[in-house]
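One-letter codes give the sequence; each number marks local geometry. A record appears below:


***
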Amino acid sequence: MKPKLQFEKYFGAKVSIKMDDGSVFVGTVENEDWAFLYLTDCHIKIPRSRKFTNRPAAVVRKLFIQNLVVIEYPKGGEVT
């Protein structure tokens, strides 16, 4: 059985996602499927690195998301 979509309410929002390995993804939530969250305009910080790497897009495995924080809400209001 596939889990329900749980990040749909964040579509269009700029978020910071901390993974359980200590890496951090900052980007805009574009889409999701049962296992992955798709981000665009990403800044990625990996453990033991002082710098962020810029990428046009990234795929985050939902299973390893430890914390998600909304940095900027999409145009037209707040995430509910």
User: Anything to note?
Assistant: The mean pLDDT is 90. The longest strand covers residues 36-45. The chain is about 0% helix and 50% strand.
